[in-house]
Specification:
The chain is of the alpha+beta class. The protein has a single domain, classed as Alpha-Beta Plaits (2-Layer Sandwich), CATH 3.30.70. It has three helices and six strands. The protein has a four-stranded antiparallel sheet with strand order 1-2-6-3. The protein has a two-stranded antiparallel sheet with strand order 4-5.
Amino acid sequence: MATLHRTIVRPLVTEKTSAQYQARGEYVFEVARDASKPAIRQAIERLWGVTVTGVWTMNTRGKPRRNMGKTAGLRPSWKKAIVTLQAGDKLPIFEV
């Protein structure tokens, strides 16, 4: 991993992830496919100055798709990380 910003690709803000945040204090990010749990933990802690208590990762396979019925293709595979923070810590990017 070259930089922290390459480890954390983007936050995932959906209805389901918002419900997770409110209920259990979990944040969901799209991360680089070769990112490890310690690298994700370090990137979150250094970027936002919070304490991470747990990191769960999952690889999501690309779904098949059709381009206007002409050819079949495949969406790219990607990796998702669910991060739990210490009680009292919050990330400003999820606060609206």
